[in-house]
Amino acid sequence: MALQTLKIPTPTPDEAPSARALISTLSLTPNPEGGYLKRTHTNPTTITSPLPGQTDETRPLNTSIFYLLTAHSPIGNFHKNRSLILHTAVKGRGRYVLIHESGKVETFVVGCDIEGGEVAQWVVEGGVWKASMLEEGAEVLLITEVRLAC
Question: What are the φ and ψ backbone dihedral angles of 21, each rounded to 5 degrees?
Fold first, then answer.
């Protein structure tokens, strides 16, 4: 197994100092869907893909990431995951919008102020469209996501 050279990303100069610090400390990289991310764990156990027509594809049983939105990159664009995702707010404040297969639209504020009505942990089932964005006045939204390939 070859050793890989670790590349520490350089935060964009447009970011606030607190966002640059998180990007550097957590070694986050830009995410094509918006914001920044880093995979923090990949389970070595794999399973056959649960999707019809993809029975020869294997996937890790679970993975986890850090995901960060900043004032410079404040929107995580709509996308759909194949598997259930467990989200946990770590720092900051944002909003999630979910569009379920039934057409039901759900929106809620996420963050660490549970007494103030913010949601600190939430589950998004596979097949649900989701988007995220910073709430007005927030500098960052840092969450963790754990994908369960079920």
Answer: -65, -45
